[in-house]
Amino acid sequence: MLKWKAATPGTCPSTKESPLDLTARAFANVLIEAKVFMQGDFELTDGSHSSFYINFGAICRPSHLSILGHCFATQIIQSGIKLDVVYGPAYKAIAMATETAKALWQGYGLDIPFASSRREKRSHGMKNPHLGAPLQDKKVVVVDDVATGGDSKLDACEYVMDKGGTVTGFIIGVDRTHNPAVLEQLTAKTGAPVFVIMQLEDLQQIAAQHVA
To answer: Would you state the torsion angle of the CA atoms of residues 30, 79, 175, 90, taken in this order, to the nearest 10 degrees?
Structure first.
């Protein structure tokens, strides 16, 4: 497994290749090792079949989570997005937001808080679905695992806006849309740019190299 070396605050990891090339390769290695990316015959919710499946819920090792966090953090730094809070929608992106915020501190010296939310309404206690840092008057970057359609990202944007925040960008792990227009429409609707760590085709190519 590719080991990630934390950078000095304000710099990128030293490499002869661009930081984003290193980021994508490290990201892909984790997805393959943790069996997040699987190849075979999978039946999807709509009844159709796919030759692959991506399940970020399979990640359970701290080492893998740490590398993913550094990948998301590097993408944020390289994109130049301004942010006050990292937000990860429930449920799989909660760990991503946590690890991304930690990596921004460890790798770049940025003490950026993180936030998430529950899907279920609570009838007791604080009765507040929000978790983590408040979003009121904050610039918020949304991190998420996969881009298939734009609906869930729009939901996340609406949540942030309802809490008084502004989404300044989306960082997506894997783009499996096969259609650039999907993410372009997301930007058009939200006014926030979308940055992707890895295209599905590149992930499939790296997976094939692992098999070889």
So the answer is: 70
